[in-house]
Amino acid sequence: MAQDYYQILGVERSADTEEIRNAYRKLARKYHPDVNPGDKQAEEKFKEISAAYDVLSDPEKRKRYDEFGEAGLAPGFDPEKAREYQKWRQQSERTGGSYRFNFGNFGDFEDLFGFGNVDEILRRGRGRSRASTRGQDTEATMDIDFLDAVKGFQTTLTIQRPSLCNDCGGTGVKRGAMCRTCGGSGQVVRPETVRVNIPPGAETGKRIRVPGKGGAGTPPGDLYIIPRVRSHPLFTRSGRDLTMDVPITVGEALKGATIEVPTPTGRVKVKVPPGSHSGQLLRIRDRGVQAHGRDPAGDLYLRLMIRAPKAAVPRELADRIDAAYSEDVRKDLRL
User: Fold this and answer.
1) Could you count the other beta carbons within 10 Å of the beta carbon of residue 27?
2) Fewest C-beta in 10 Å: which of 110, 152, 156, 286?
3) Is the pLDDT of residue 304 over 90?
4) Range of the domain at 252
């Protein structure tokens, strides 16, 4: 069933960017897997929340979603063609079906918008043989969870893939006449399930090649997966390194402490040195993006953030702490 992204985040369709961001952060903290270890239901809820935020936080995606629903987010979806099709349907209903819609080389509406690089396929024209030329490369987008992109994974993707027509061998002609199966195009579009390896370190917009799974031809073209990596409530990424803000108490900063923190590959214990200050970075080796091929593993950096207690602290104690400073903490604030 189609999902209502606004309902998932609990916001009105008129919600502004700030309202959507605040709703996402609140829900992400509640359902994050680190907060609910082993809870599959919470994990699925977190994925729904992340997917909804990925769409509604992007002005272009949100516009297409508002107009066409989830169909508008599909790989290769062409808004102009969709509006043309909707207009055709309205005219056809008013006139009893007398208006015709030109699908070009495609069998129906689903074929036309079911896969990427539609414009390129439309430009090829009809009745040409592609049996002796390399197939066109195609593209498909894929939404990926932040931690999946960090660790890498295997998945399957169902695509609408152009392939040579078996009845005419890709020539568009059968027994001296136009092949009815492919309408003279030499190609038909069939669903195909493709196994895809997403390597550790996948980045938004950085294409991943799947050889031989593009358009039909000799040889066939390649399929390129375009990842869209969702944001994460705890981690940010720079190259193969990750950074996370870690709150510590005043006492832990003064005395030092051993604290436990989550990482993409499990929780670890870290020593906070005595006299630590806010903004100080602690490095955990090889806990960032995992190693792949010649690319080494990245590191995880913990940015210490000292939090004062909410309860009132005796003035005498605060004065004693202030007296321990050997220099003006704002001495470098000069223009």
Assistant:
1) 21
2) 156
3) yes
4) 246-323
